[in-house]
């Protein structure tokens, strides 16, 4: 079963774009006086995010609440690769349309970003000698990066790179995030991009057509929200045995794993997180959080 197609794909994005661009143009750029940018975990959505006006407004308002970053580094659910690899840093690197079954318009969208070679060098320098970073020569940004960033930074004036996700082990991902933490002091926005629940195989007609929320999705989201609100990293890391709704909420865990990179990059992983986007889309929890 596939999601119902809108009459005019991405029409909501088209309608919002002039206002998004105007707000982005007026956004102050990050300076050292602003201090480290916060790491974030966002539920990025499939391309139909660009048909959800409320969601886009929330994402845009969140982006505007921070200074415009000097660069963005994304760890996405859609690039699992070990050893560590970085996407191609050249300006205007083509996008990855890593989805199927959607309207043609989504495969024609473009998001050309500036050269990110300086960020690539800084990420490589942050890794230990025993874990070098492979520079991928041609891989572009996947939809876990370009869909939300088209809304958050619609002018395409911020350099963007993706770092592959080499494991699903929370401890190793927390350690990876900690190695990336100093980049925040240089105006880099660190983004873990996933989806708070992602049990696509277990969605039925009521979810696709009416957005009904399955019990497993609601219970997992409530559990995660409570653990994040009290900064309980140990509880979150034990999701496989502690979280209600498993394994339906995450039959595979790649959409949850980026959360641990963001937590590791936090100055205080055990500090309460701030929910910036909540609610559900086709029954899936779109909770997004900002860390300290």
TrEMBL record:
The record's listing under InterPro entries reads: Extradiol_dOase_DODA, Xdiol_dOase_suB
Q: Does the keyword Protease apply?
A: no
Keyword Zinc appears in the UniProt entry: yes
Which GO terms of the molecular function aspect are on file?
ferrous iron binding; oxidoreductase activity, acting on single donors with incorporation of molecular oxygen, incorporation of two atoms of oxygen; zinc ion binding
Q: Cite the Pfam families for this sequence.
A: LigB
> What's the domain of life for this entry?
Bacteria
The family assignment reads:
Belongs to the DODA-type extradiol aromatic ring-opening dioxygenase family.
Name of the protein this chain belongs to: Dioxygenase
Species this chain originates from = Vallicoccus soli
């Amino acid at each position: 079963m596939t999601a119902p197609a809108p009459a005019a794909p991405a029409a909501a994005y088209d309608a919002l774009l002039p206002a998004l661009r105007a707000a982005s143009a007026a956004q102050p750029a990050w300076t050292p006086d602003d201090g480290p940018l916060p790491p974030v975990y966002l539920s990025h959505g499939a391309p139909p995010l660009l048909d959800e006006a409320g969601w886009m407004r929330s994402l845009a308002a969140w982006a505007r609440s921070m200074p415009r970053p000097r660069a963005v580094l994304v760890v996405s659910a859609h690039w699992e690769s070990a050893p560590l690899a970085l996407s191609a840093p050249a300006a205007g690197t083509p996008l990855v349309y890593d989805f199927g079954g959607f309207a043609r318009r989504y495969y024609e969208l473009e998001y050309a970003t500036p050269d990110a070679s300086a960020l690539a060098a800084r990420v490589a320098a942050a890794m230990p000698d025993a874990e070098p970073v492979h520079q991928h020569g041609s891989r572009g940004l996947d939809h876990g990066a370009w869909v939300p960033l088209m809304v958050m930074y619609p002018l395409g004036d911020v350099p963007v790179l993706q770092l592959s996700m080499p494991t699903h082990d929370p401890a190793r991902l927390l350690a990876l995030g900690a190695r990336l933490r100093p980049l925040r002091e240089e105006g880099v926005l660190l983004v873990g991009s996933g989806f708070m629940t992602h049990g696509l195989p277990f969605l039925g007609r009521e979810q696709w057509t009416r957005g009904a929320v399955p019990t497993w999705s609601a219970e997992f989201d409530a559990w995660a929200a409570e653990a994040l609100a009290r900064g309980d990293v140990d509880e979150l890391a034990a999701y496989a045995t502690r979280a209600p709704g498993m394994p339906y909420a995450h039959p595979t865990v790649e959409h949850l794993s980026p959360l641990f990179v963001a937590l590791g990059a936090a100055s205080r992983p055990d500090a309460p997180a701030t929910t910036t986007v909540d609610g559900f889309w086709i029954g899936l929890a779109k909770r997004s959080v900002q860390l300290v």
